[in-house]
């Protein structure tokens, strides 16, 4: 599974960072940054939660 | 025989006096009947009311839904008295909304807000020290819930400590229930003038604070001085009543649910406290009059079409009690996973200040009840005055003893 971001959509809410700190970070302006493009199996639940709580639909989890 | 359509129910609806923490019973009934219904506002217009969690999120995330009150169909204010102006980017659509909002997102990034946690803790501890040293009983709203967000935003904006009193007195007046419109306008002018001046000083002498960040946008030619001042004022106002009411109403809800209060008092686990804050946000949902939007293109929802030029009201307090998402939704349960609540809204307008609000509430809920283990209400529950008509729900005052 692979994480894709649409940083143009991101509204810098930080929800993803709160949910999966090993996978997402924010740049100086608060815009999402990807730390792990292909998260491990143990991180997938958190990434799915991040997709669900992201208010701007800026995160996608796609099959490789 | 043609059906005579039932008249649309009036919105907003009254809460039941029996459980002032629950949404109006009529709203719950409407949600059970389906996600979409028409309601009638005080001025006779009939926007759509969206009641289910999933449909609310879908609509708030839809680019055909406008937050600009000048868009045709935008529902009129919830009550004739609720006078709000156009508040900077909160009432704009993209791309202008995104352009302005992005200018002030930096200080609300998780790590920046986390760095403020020790300062927030110091402020909370100081306010509790003052509370303990002062008269008992005391009004928790006046002595604790309102000053906290004021002092925290001072810290964030970079208001010099020497000016705290001036700043706090004026913000207090701006949000004080008993202030006259003239008093409020005067306080807002004072603060606006103050912030404008502070921005001017930070233009030439920048520091590591939010005001300096806004000043830098003037230098970069992205904002003029007036827009910059308006933005600073928006940030100042937005966090005040909201956080204050979460503290006071939340405390009252916990006092009514002593088993849940005990969980907070006895826990040293920051994760548990953080989860408890999410549940209180879900359960209380103080922005109770619905989010208003206008639709700019036909949208199919639940077998119906909301047409361009029609208004929608999204009552997220009912979405937060949707049993499809939160089982046994009317129960305050600090151990449940409530993170998906929509208390901060959803979509591009989701509350900008939520990371800061979370840290403030986590520090409060993690500290107050431990330091005041005997905390209880100083008046009978029936005498508590709830803010039924206010834009933000809460209690007018909460006399407590300990
Ligand atoms: S949750 Fe979504 S909007 Fe918020 S910072 Fe992450 S990607 Fe951006």
Features:
heterodimer; A: 64 residues; alpha+beta; Alpha-Beta Plaits; two-stranded antiparallel sheet; 2 helices; 22% strand; globular; B: 402 residues; Cytochrome p450; five-stranded mixed sheet; 16 helices; 7% strand; binds iron/sulfur cluster; 3Fe4S_ferredoxin (chain A); iron (chain A)
Task: Walk me through this protein's architecture.
The complex is a heterodimer of chains A (64) and B (402). Chain A has 64 residues and is an alpha+beta fold. Chain A has helices at residues 15-19, 44-53; strands at 2-5, 24-26, 32-34, 59-62. Chain A has one domain: 2-Layer Sandwich (Alpha-Beta Plaits). The N and C termini of chain B lie far apart (66 Å). In chain B, a hairpin with a 2-residue loop joins strand 6 (299-301) and strand 7 (304-306). Chain B has a five-stranded mixed beta sheet with strand order 1-2-8-5-3, sandwiched between helices. Chain B is α+β, with helices and mostly antiparallel strands and 402 residues long. At the A-B interface, helix 1 and helix 2 of A face helix 3 and helix 4 of B.
Quick take:
Chain B: Belongs to the cytochrome P450 family. The complex is a heterodimer of chains A (64) and B (402). Chain A is an alpha+beta fold and 64 residues long.
Query: What is the average per-residue confidence, as pLDDT of chain B, rounded to a whole number?
Result: 90
What does the radius of gyration of chain A come to? Answer: 10 Å
For the secondary structure, the number of strands of chain B is 10
CATH domain class of chain A: Alpha Beta
Name the CATH homologous superfamily of chain B.
Answer: Cytochrome P450
**Number of structural domains of chain A:** 1
- Please provide the ordered H/E string of secondary-structure elements of chain A: EHEEHE
Q: Ends of chain A: how far apart?
A: 5 Å
Low-confidence stretches of chain B: 80-85
How big a fraction of the residues of chain A is strand? 15-25%
Shape field of chain A: globular
- How many angstroms does the end-to-end distance of chain B come to? 66 Å
**Oligomeric state of the chains present here:** heterodimer
* CATH second-level architecture of chain B: Orthogonal Bundle
CATH architecture of chain A: 2-Layer Sandwich
